[in-house]
Amino acid sequence: MNSLKKKQTGFTIVELLIVIVVIGILAGLVITTFSGIQQKARDTERETDIKALHGQVEAFWAQKAYYPSLTDLNTPAFVSANLKGLDTGALKDPKGASDALVAAPAANAYAYAVTNTAGTSCEADDTTCSKYTLTATLEGTLNGSGIFVKDSLNN
Predict the structure, then answer these.
(1) What is the DSSP letter of 8?
(2) Could you tell me which of 128, 148, 149 has the C-alpha nearest to residue 138?
(3) Which end of the chain is more exposed for a tag (fewer CB within 10 A), N or C?
């Protein structure tokens, strides 16, 4: 005798909930991993920019026997005339709004602190600038400190 009950096909609510929870967990893992990868990429870009700027400033020293002032490096005409190999994008932090360097380390900006041999500001007479420190504040802790620093070779 044939059964009068019809066989129902489909998923139960419990099965659907399990699938949704598993998808949610996987999506959460992907998002956090992707965020970390982006952060590391920005930190690597910061280090590359600081190294490029360091190289250009040292080349300027080799030609002029002094380092440019902060004002000089924030002047596009000076940069294009004296630091010809420097990409203007190297002055801007990947998350920064401005491409101007700042005097003290700050988030989302590169810092350039330049001094004379006495350790005081040389902005008034940039031909006395003999030391500098370039700093980028990192989002992660690639080097354990949260900052990346390059000092002048003339220290």
Answers:
(1) P
(2) 148
(3) N
Burial of 46 (0-12, 13-18, 19+ CB in 10 A): buried
* 68's tokens: 């440019």
CB count within 10 Å of CB 151 equals 13
Give me the DSSP letters along 55-89: HHHHHHHHHHSSPPPHHHHT-HHHHHHH-TT--GG
Place of tokens 């004296």: 82
DSSP symbol at 136 = E
Mean pLDDT calculated for residue range 6-33: 88
Question: Nearest-CA neighbor of 146 among 34, 39, 37, 33?
Answer: 39
Kindly tell me if the per-residue pLDDT of 77 is higher than 80. Answer: yes
Residue type (1 letter), 48: T
pLDDT one-digit tens code per residue, 78-107: 999 999 888 888 899 999 888 899 999 988
Lookup: tokens for 147 = 């900052």
